[in-house]
Amino acid sequence: MVYLTSFIYDILCFTFYFLAFNYYLTIRARGLRLKIWQIAVFLLLYIGALESKEMAVTLPAILLLYEALWHAPGRWSWRSVWRWVGTEALPPLVAGAVTLVYILGKALGPESLMKLDSYRPVIGLDLVLRSHLPVPQPVVLRYLRARILQYPNGAAHGRAAPGHRLEDPPENPCS
How far apart are CA 120 and CA 3, in angstroms? Predict the structure, then answer.
């Protein structure tokens, strides 16, 4: 049997994430609002998940969605939404504020990995399509490039600029 110590962070994140999630839902399913000390316990569990692995940042959004679906304000007037934000939606919003501080600290802190090129996020439709689509990737990319996207060589709407041709997509940098 082989033990890989790198999986401990996944296990810790899962444990704290679902302890926080279950703790929150158990209280809310009874129709109760979290008291200050219960919010503190929830936040401690959430911070434990955050310190284990970054994927825990999704918890406030999940809980806010839960509140919006199962405990939405009676009417969608400004007054009732404001009251809802200050009562039912408050714990997920506080957790969201903790998440914001956490993300800013990770991104801008003195030892931020974002200062290294290999950890800096690269966002682009081509990259997403090349890494997540099944086999006929070049065909889909050429279609999107021709119909939707504007490229430096002037290719748009299926026509190349004079003196240029529609090129195949570049090699996948992720592989």
Answer: 30
pTM score: 0.66
Question: Mean pLDDT across the stretch 84-88?
Answer: 90
Q: Going by C-beta distance under 8 Å and a sequence separation of 6 or more, which residues neighbour residue 28?
A: 34, 66, 67, 70, 71
Q: Which tokens hold the place of 14?
A: 């899962």
The CA-atom distances, in angstroms, between 27 and each of 44, 86, 160, 175 are 16, 17, 60, 46
Among left, alpha and beta (phi > 0; psi -120 to 50; other), residue 95 is: alpha
Q: Which residues pair with 159 in a beta bridge?
A: 156
60 burial (CB, 10 Å; 0-12 / 13-18 / 19+) is buried
Between the alpha carbon of residue 50 and those of residues 23, 58, 102, the distances in Å are: 16, 10, 8
Is-contact 45 19, C-beta < 8 A?
A: yes
> Distance (Å, rounded) from C-alpha 38 to C-alpha 43?
8
Query: Which residues, listed in sequence order, are joined to residue 156 by a DSSP beta bridge?
Result: 159
CB of 62 within 8 A of CB of 24?
Answer: no
pLDDT (0 to 100) of residue 156: 47
Map out the domains of the chain as residue ranges: 5-119, 122-175
